[in-house]
Amino acid sequence: MAKDQEIRLNRFSQKNGEIASELTAQALYDKCLALSSNLWWTWHPEVHSLFRDLDPIRWRQLDHNPIALLSEFTPERLAGRAAEMVLHSRINYHYRRLKEYLSDTRKTWGTTNAGILGALPVAYFSAEFGIHESIPIYSGGLGVLSGDHVKAASGLAVPLVGVGLFYSQGYFKQHLNTDGYQEEEYLDTKVENLPMEPAVDADGKPIMVSIDTRTGSLHAKVWLMHVGRVKLYLLDCDVEGNQPDDRRLTSRLYGGDERTRIRQELVLGIGGVKAIRALGITPGVYHLNEGHSAFGPLEVIRERMHDDDLPFDEALRQVTRRTVFTTHTPVSAGHDFFDAGLVEEHLGPLRDQLGIPYEQLVGLGRVDPQKEHEKFCMTVLGLKLSRRANAVSQLHGHISRRMWAHLWPWRVEEEIPIGHITNGVHVPSWLAWQMRQLYDRHFPDRWITGMGEPAAWRNIHNVDPGELWEAHNALKNLLLSFVRRRVSRQCRRRGEGDEVVEAARAMLNPSILTIGFGRRFATYKRATLLFTNPDRMDAILNNGERPVQLIFAGKAHPRDEEGKQFIRAIANCRRDPRFKDRVAFIEDYDINVCRHMIQGVDVWLNNPRRPLEASGTSGQKVVLNGGLNLSILDGWWAEAYDGSNGFAIGKGRSHRSVEQTDARDAESLYAALENEVIPTFYDRDVDGLPRGWIQMMMNSIGTLAWRFSAHRMVMDYTRTMYVPAAGGLSCDMTRG
Ligand SMILES: *Cc1c(COP(=O)(O)O)cnc(C)c1O
């Protein structure tokens, strides 16, 4: 009997133990899910490494997607792995940090400086949001800027909600064939692996919006993503009730023809405003990030006319007062244009409600409303529907005022109402963990909360030069192994021989000056400018004592044949004995590739045809990590370069002919490399340190990191645009 009882007792305690461990396993799993469901984790490298430690190989294979990773775990397996890797306390710690971050906004910059937006947040509209490589709803610079904007708004606690589109296939994946020609592949994103949930109204019902056109209605559902404290709403047309073609309307970013584009922009602008209203949000400010969302204010005008019984003109006046418009495009051809007929087809029913004639609606998108052949331009619409407008760098401000001067023919150029706020990057997202540790040791406590101001960054000069150089070289080595891994994988995928794959595994050398070029292969960015004179390039790359190596990456728009030929020319360097050991091309440029490149290069090259680069932001990411910029004095660099914090190509002049410009810029580029960049890099002291170079790294970090941070940018938007625009509203309200 004693035996029996013992067995029973044993069973009992075993069972109890199991229940207890099941409970903790489930609790642990839930905490990991909570961490992965708020994109806060994307700018906390400690949380990345937590997820990575669960299964390093799958983590990489799954594009660093924690939800996809967790779906391969049961709570028990997770608990087992956590025990093995001693992860319990780390999971609990970060879970608590996230909770605190979300609940405590008392001592934030936003509470002090953006109080007026508290009940009336900014609604920030953008056609793309680049937040993390595992969420493919961005194509490039504009998207990453929007992602950085919402992340900084979260950090500062500026009340803001994001509005965008959900693209189920995103932008394309790039592969090169054996000939170096770009091929595009579109993959369906698994919605269940994304940190999204259906957005619901006050009654908990999923939100749907409908937009009437002359040729039928369009419907969209709304997803919600949490980006720290910011809510991001994404509209998605893949719903029942839509025509089969319309169900695919939002599947691809910049995919279709003019009609697809206007319908996407209708969903973003009009649908976005309707979604916000259905959610019960009353924005104090509408920020249109680029012209894609410029239809939005028309719907807000309709709301005001309906709710407050205002005539069109008065509603228009009030709505423009709280609309902010940012333009990003310095060439007229780059703006979005539509046929007047398409505009009437899609906005006709709304126009009826606004009670305005066809000519008046179409005129809002024309510089000269009377000109019947002028196409409808979304930038013109954005400018006419906003009281405050801005360009994205100082130089771009000049260009934009000149470009749009004819909209205000009675004003002189300086009085054209387009200002500028220069773009910046989200420091915690782009700063390498190794650099972060270095700064944490030498900068004041909690320096990261003041990262948009100069004070903390001055401490960079207290860092030991050897230590900074070491941290940089560690990152450079990580980049080189990343390139080897990717390039050898590319060779294997193309079915190339073992020797080729092996050669790729051994390519590039950490002691060689490494220059990176990662960007869209648009013609004006001139990716092949370095190869204008191949013999001179040969001499530079293969110099016996002071060699140079190059790493390229970038996609061409699927319809940009010239851009694809640029890619081909660079990819095929690997067949040229002069260049094959010195030039690498990484396929499928995205946030992940960009992060590796900007954290590891010695020099970041940017040689656009001036003044076509409105701002550019990748060079700003390089600054944070100790790389130096070598750039045409265009976009942000025209106001950043001071002679001691990087290198300039040319003197910031523009020439009349494209051929002449290209020839002179190539000459300046070679001269800068031969006379400045290469000698400074290879000038070593007895300890093997390039003292002059390290001094420039410090100057670059000290003078540029804060100025070109997204925190500074969002503070500028808040002070000069959002608060005044929202103030306009409160005036209206008191008067009303
Ligand atoms: C930062 C970033 C860009 C912007 O780069 P610029 O060419 O400097 O404008 C584009 N694509 C990706 C993936 C980025 O991370």
How would you summarize what this structure contains?
The protein is α/β, with parallel strands linked by helices. It folds into three domains: 3-103, no CATH class; 109-423 and 715-726, Rossmann fold; 427-708, Glycogen Phosphorylase B (Rossmann fold), CATH 3.40.50. It is built from 28 helices and 20 strands.
Question: How is this structure best described in words?
Answer:
The protein is an alpha/beta fold and 736 residues long. The protein has three domains: 3-103, no CATH class; 109-423 and 715-726, 3-Layer(aba) Sandwich (Rossmann fold), CATH 3.40.50.2000; 427-708, 3-Layer(aba) Sandwich (Rossmann fold). It contains 28 helices and 20 strands. Strands 1, 2, 5, 6, 7, 8, 9, 10, 13 and 14 form a ten-stranded mixed β-sheet that branches. A six-stranded parallel β-sheet has the order 17-16-15-18-19-20, sandwiched between helices. The longest helix is centred in the N-terminal third of the chain and has 36 residues, at 2-37. The termini are far apart.
